[in-house]
């Protein structure tokens, strides 16, 4: 992928070997590309690499009390190897939060992608009505920040303001336990699905629009139903878009923080360490245990990169197999 | 007609929706058949649209309820307190809501523009030059796409407080300028949209590299830049954790953090719930309009086709 831009320069001189192209003799400043990438590289180093390195560095250190001049001893910042990781990985609370995150992700990611794919395919059915309205309406939540979405849905869940619980109350069934233990995962996942379906739908739909219509025509002439065209022709062709949206959905899931934190005032089910990032925030700012926060951050970031890389690698291999 | 009927029944048994483009076939389909092929997908799409609009509709209705009505009347019954809520919202702590909105606009606008220029320059260089270290830089950028930006917020805060920058608006603006995904998209766009011949012609004419970029490349890259800008603008506008971690003064908050504090204080003072709801309703309007208006300028095929690049 990285060498596509090289190709013109590598192949052209060979193709035009008898007479060297005049362009090869152009005045060309060798430092120009470095100046173009310089702002990005500097910012990348300062705001991504250094914080990342700092996180790893502080995850390998800890404050220890050592005997010293005073009676209480001296607080020393020293290298402790992987001790923090061992401690963090044995922390039942953090492990439980990773478990909750996993369950939440298992609901949110497949449903977001599945619904996005379904809506994109329906938008691509030629005879469907009200396309523009549906597309716009489903896309609107993209413009609503996650915090605001959590606030809106929070009130839709809260028994005293929920329209759904109003109906079930009127029927004598009592309020729906959106914010109780049983319903909480679905309720939180629903916020992510609501916010994510529209954007992913547009990406998949754009990808569908890029496929030349002739590809379907012969299938349709052979009497294939619109459903068969969708499942056998369209879905395989938008797999790259699905993989990409899948990776982004995965990254988004692992960053879960604002939504459960916003719902906290409305329910006692969400503790201060409900999601891993909430635990990390608490360790860093409330209990002042920076090394633990750094170790958990590193695990979370590493987990994200490894998971995304696995998804991309599997998808690439599948595509290579399909192509051969 | 009977042939069509049996065919339709067979299709129905297979669970398939009736082909909608029968019109292209000689003989055509019965009107009923094509109608059924339209109705089910249309209904499903409308259910999706309804699902997406319900909370938005609710927040506008709820913002018209006075604090007393919020918890007592049916959710979708409009109230009588809209003017009062709006007045309370903009008067809250000396007009802080207006400040939050201005801050959101400032962070998203300035951050988005700077980020777009940095990404465009880098993407162009990575796509159109070959230079030592290019592949290393591109690989790092790709890896950067996968790193959840949010896990960096805490170390960024600690490092910025070391140099005394944490707490102020700059601490929110600076980290968001670097966008690995924006650079990646710009590179994909430059690769497909900027022809090598144009660059060489410009160089033969004696234009310097910067002049070539400024006058030839930038105009070609506008559609890609609009896309990167919108993604960044919405991303920054919707961001919560970075400003939440960085900012100490309420007057510097963007809308997301401001609304969050209103809601978290609300459990002690329910009147703030009405403010949070009204504030959420008001804040949805400008961004929705912007996104809907600019939707047509997006080149989202960059993203969907990006992986093939």
Give a summary of the structure in a few sentences.
Chain A contains 14 helices and two strands. Chain A has helices at 7-15, 32-59, 83-89, 92-123, 131-139, 146-157, 163-170, 181-209, 214-221, 226-237, 239-254, 258-263, 276-286, 290-323, and strands at residues 61-66, 74-79.
Largest interface: A-B, 124 and 123 residues
CATH topology of the largest domain in chain B: MetI-like fold
Task: Based on the coordinates given, report the CATH architecture of the largest domain in chain A.
Answer: Orthogonal Bundle
Mean pLDDT of chain B: 82
Shape category of chain A: globular
Let me know the number of strands of chain B: 0
The CATH superfamily title of the largest domain in chain A? MetI-like
What do these coordinates show?
The complex is a heterodimer of chains A (324) and B (309). Chain A is mostly helical. Chain A folds into 2 domains: 4-79, no CATH class; 83-323, MetI-like fold (Orthogonal Bundle). Chain A is built from 14 helices and 2 strands. Chain A has helices at 7-15, 32-59, 83-89, 92-123, 131-139, 146-157, 163-170, 181-209, 214-221, 226-237, 239-254, 258-263, 276-286, 290-323; strands spanning 61-66, 74-79. The longest helix of chain A has 34 residues, at 290-323. The model of chain A is unreliable at 1-27 (pLDDT under 50). With 309 residues, chain B is mainly α. Chain B has 2 domains: 2-62, no CATH class; 89-306, Orthogonal Bundle (MetI-like fold), CATH 1.10.3720. Chain B has 15 helices and no strands. In chain B, α5 (96-128) packs across α11. The radius of gyration of chain B is 26 Å and the shape is globular. The relative contact order of chain B is 0.12. The chains are: A mainly alpha (324), B mainly alpha (309). At the A-B interface, α2, α4, α5, α6 and α8 of A face α2, α5, α6, α7 and α9 of B.
